[in-house]
Amino acid sequence: MVYQNYWKAKSATQQTRHERLLRQADVVHLSAEGRKRLKWILYAEASRNIQKTCRHFGISTSIFYFWRKRFQEHNLRSLENKSTRPMKKRGRQKVFYKDQRVIELRKQFMYYGKMKLQVLYIRTYKEYISSWYVQRVIEEKDLYPPRRKKLGSTKRTHKNSQPKKRITELRNNPKVFGALLHLDTVEIRLEGVKRYVLTAVDSYSRFGFAYAYKNHTSASSKDFLMKLHEFFGEKMEIVHTDNGTEFHKHFDQATKDLQVKHYWSRVRKSTDNAKDERFNRTFRDECLSQGAFSKDLNTFNKHILTWVIEYVSIRPHQSLNYLTPIEFISQTSQPSNMSSSST
After folding, report:
1. Which residues does 254 contact at the CB level (< 8 Å), separation at least 6?
2. pTM score, two decimals?
3. Closest among 63, 82, 72, 81 to 24, alpha carbons compared
């Protein structure tokens, strides 16, 4: 009789303790996983049989003993999962001379991305480096170019009623160096002067060219076309322009004299000339924003020519599988008519 009363009294005490722990779990907002482990411990205390508890909840005895050992009655959060993050994390393996090389390349070619810099690094130092290594150096040293300033845009307001061959009518782009050239104009307003840079890019090899003029006229465009023809020769079969006034009159007549087909973009469709538009953006970012502009036209054109040489012979192009245009032309066995007088 005394023995039964003892266990009744002990059971009542446990029941009160169990209720208190469950209420405490609500107060501390114990997670579902923590509540489940708390139920394991309370069930084991009530049944006084650990094997039965493990069978009831479908857990191993080692798991039960692990959480019972961690359990602290005054701190129910001891039943929560702890972070599995290692105490010591592996840091970036720095190689001083590699970092310095990447920094020098990035400062020289500020607008090149990690993939292009990787190609240049391997080409220059004959040593492999991952693009992620390059990116981490850029992030760590904060080697980002300044925001590009808005340099103005070319206005195209001229309308001509004559029928035009639209570039969308050209079904198959020729896969020959110099056969199809995309042309456009970049208007620049800096230091109180205006300059107009005519740009051209070869559709096949991404070989680019640019030249600055004082006037925004068809005569200037004709002169630019003659320079292109001197460079590409008979390979130049098609030129593609937008509907700007500089590509009418003298320019259009020159295309007929040279027996070069002239295709036009659709009105207000810059996507029709996407390759040269991308060339223009690169020209702004990597040439103009780097201080190439000069009020003296000859000096300005010398700076442009220096950048063009970099663009075609040094700068890796993603669209060419990170080859330069000259490397691409060489590998595709399409020799150019380049000469010292042409450049």
Report:
1. 222, 225, 226
2. 0.64
3. 72
